[in-house]
Specification:
The chain has two domains: 171 residues, Aspartate Aminotransferase, domain 1 (Alpha-Beta Complex); 266 residues, Type I PLP-dependent aspartate aminotransferase-like (Major domain) (Aspartate Aminotransferase, domain 2), CATH 3.40.640.10. 36% of the residues lie in helices and 17% in strands. The structure holds pyridoxal-5'-phosphate. Its cofactor is pyridoxal 5'-phosphate.
C-alpha cells in the first residue's frame, strides 16, 4: 500500500502524533507483512511471532486457505447484514461449529465482532433468560473494555481507571490462582479449589443471593490475569452450585478457544457444560468475529431485534471462520498443539532447572500452547505478597520480553505479576518453537545475570 508519507521513520512519527495515546504498543514500529509464524516491519526487521496478535492468528499469518476464502467471499458478498437476511457463510459456520461444541446442548448461535461484544451479549442473555440481574465474576479476570465487559474485568485497574461508574450488579470471588489467595505457588489444587468455592458460597450468602444472581462468568484458563488454568474440580464445583441455585454458567473462551489449549475449548479439560459460551480471537484467524453460543430452549426467549449489530457476523469474517474450522481438521492442528506443548513445557522446565535462574522462576503453567512462566519480584503488588523476593531483579518480565525482541522474538507479558505468556501459532513447526525457546532462555539468563 502506498502512502504519501515517504519512509518508515516518518510513518512511525506520523502514527505517534496522530494515533491516540490511549493505545499501548509493545513494538515501536509499523508492521507490514505476516506469513506463517513470522512478521515483518517497515524497516525490514523480521520477527518470530509468539504473540499471534494476542492469541488470534492461531493458524499463522495469512494462512492461504483462510485468506483465500475471505478473498473469494469479498467478490461474492461482503456485507449482507444479519437483521436483513441470513448469509451462506454465517450458516456454514454454524454447521462447522456445532460438532466442535463442548456440549451438544450448545446449539444456538449469535455472531458479533469483538470479544467484548460477545461478553455484553452473554450478560444481556443471562439477565433475560433468568429474569435476574447480578453477575459474579473472578478477581483477576479480563473480559474486555466496553462498559459491561469493563465491569466484569478485574485483572488491572488501567482498564477502568477514570471511567467509573461501571455497570452495577457485579460481584467477585478470587480466581483459583495462588496469588489471588496469597498462597504459595506450590499449594495443592484441592486447597485452592476449596478456598475459592468457599468464597463463592460466602458471596452467595453475604452479598448477592441466588435469587438475584443471573450468572457466574469464568475464563476456564485465565488469560490477561496470568495464564492460569482453573482446576477441573473448581469448575465442576461451580457447575454444581449453578445447577442447585438456578444460576447460569458463562464460560469465556475468547482467548482459550479453537485448539489453543490442546482441545477445541479449554472447558473440555474439566468436562463441564457451559450454559452460555463466548468465542472470538482464533475463530476467524484475524478477521473481526466473535460469537455467543447457548441452548435454543433459552435463546428462544429473546425477542427479535434484541440482538444484532450492523457488522455482526459479517459474511467475509464468517467465510474466513469456515476455512479456519476446515483447516483445524484437515491440518490436524490439535495434534500439533499437543506435540509442541510437550516440547514447550520440556524446554521451559529445563530452563527452570538451571541453578542460575531457578531461584527467580516461580511457576511454569498452562495448557496446550497457552503457557506462562512467572518470575519473582523484589516488590510484588503488595507488601503482604508472600512471594516477594528482595533479591530478585526488578521488572523481570518486561525486561525479558524486550530482550527477546532485540533477538528477533515477539513475546508478551501479562497480568499485574511478573508473567511472560507463550501464545505461538498452533501450527508452529518444531524448528520454530525450539528457536523461540532458545531465544527466550538466553534472554532470561542474560537479564537475570545483569540483575
Ligand atoms: C478472555 C477474554 N474475553 C474477552 C476479551 C475481549 O475481547 P476483545 O478484545 O475482542 O473485545 C478478551 C481479549 O483479550 C479475552 O482474552
Amino acid at each position: 500500500m502506498s502512502s504519501t508519507i515517504q519512509n518508515n521513520t516518518s510513518l512511525l512519527e506520523f502514527g505517534k502524533k496522530h494515533v491516540t495515546a490511549g493505545l499501548a504498543r509493545s513494538v515501536d514500529g509499523v508492521m507490514t507483512k505476516g506469513a506463517g509464524s513470522y512478521v515483518e516491519f517497515g524497516d525490514g526487521k523480521v520477527f518470530l511471532d509468539f504473540t499471534t496478535g494476542i492469541g488470534v492468528t492461531g493458524l499463522g499469518h495469512c494462512h492461504p486457505k483462510v485468506s483465500g476464502a475471505a478473498a473469494k467471499q469479498c467478490m461474492e458478498l461482503v456485507h449482507g447484514q444479519c437483521s436483513i437476511a441470513f448469509t451462506e457463510p454465517y450458516l456454514q459456520l454454524i454447521e462447522r461449529l456445532l460438532p466442535m461444541m463442548p456440549d451438544p446442548s450448545l446449539d444456538s448461535f449469535f455472531f458479533w465482532n469483538s470479544g467484548s461484544e460477545a461478553i455484553e451479549a452473554a450478560m444481556k442473555m443471562a439477565r433475560l433468560f433468568t429474569g435476574k440481574q447480578n453477575i459474579i465474576a473472578m478477581q483477576g479476570a479480563y473480559h474486555g473494555r466496553t462498559f459491561g465487559a469493563m465491569a466484569v474485568t478485574k485483572s488491572k485497574t488501567i482498564y477502568s481507571e477514570g471511567f467509573h461508574p461501571l455497570m452495577p450488579g457485579v460481584f467477585s470471588i478470587p480466581y483459583p490462582y495462588w496469588h489471588q489467595l496469597s498462597l504459595p505457588p506450590t499449594t495443592e489444587q484441592s486447597e485452592i479449589t476449596a478456598q475459592c468455592l468457599n468464597q463463592l458460597h460466602l458471596v452467595l450468602s453475604q452479598q448477592t443471593a441466588p435469587r438475584d444472581t443471573a450468572a457466574i462468568l469464568i475464563e476456564p484458563l485465565l488469560g490477561e490475569g496470568g495464564y492460569v488454568p482453573a482446576p477441573a474440580e473448581f469448575l465442576k464445583g461451580v457447575r454444581e452450585i449453578c445447577d442447585k441455585e438456578g444460576i447460569l454458567l458463562i464460560i469465556d473462551e475468547v482467548q482459550s478457544g479453537f485448539a489453543r489449549t490442546g482441545k477445541n475449548f479449554s472447558i473440555e479439560h474439566a468436562g463441564v457444560r457451559p450454559d452460555i459460551m463466548t468465542i472470538a480471537k482464533g475463530l476467524a484467524n484475524g478477521f473481526p468475529l466473535s460469537g455467543v453460543v447457548s441452548r435454543k430452549e433459552l435463546t428462544d426467549k429473546l425477542k427479535p431485534g434484541s440482538m444484532g449489530g450492523t457488522y455482526a457476523g459479517n459474511a467475509v469474517a464468517c467465510a474466513a471462520a469456515v476455512a479456519v474450522a476446515d483447516v483445524l481438521k484437515e491440518e490436524k492442528i490439535l495434534e500439533n498443539v499437543n506435540a509442541r506443548s510437550k516440547e514447550l513445557f520440556a524446554g521451559l522446565n529445563e530452563l527452570r532447572s538451571k541453578p542460575s535462574v531457578s531461584p527467580v522462576i516461580l511457576d511454569v503453567r498452562g495448557q496446550g500452547l497457552m503457557v506462562a512462566v512467572e518470575f519473582a519480584s523484589p516488590t510484588g503488588t503488595s507488601p503482604y505478597d508472600s512471594f516477594v523476593k528482595p533479591s530478585a531483579p526488578a521488572r523481570l518480565s518486561s525486561r525479558i520480553a524486550k530482550r527477546c525482541q532485540e533477538k528477533g522474538l515477539l513475546i508478551l507479558t501479562t497480568s499485574v505479576y511478573e508473567v511472560i505468556r507463550f501464545i505461538p501459532p498452533l501450527n508452529i513447526t518444531q524448528e520454530d518453537l525450539n528457536k523461540g525457546i532458545k531465544i527466550f532462555s538466553e534472554a532470561v539468563e542474560e537479564v537475570v545475570r545483569e540483575g
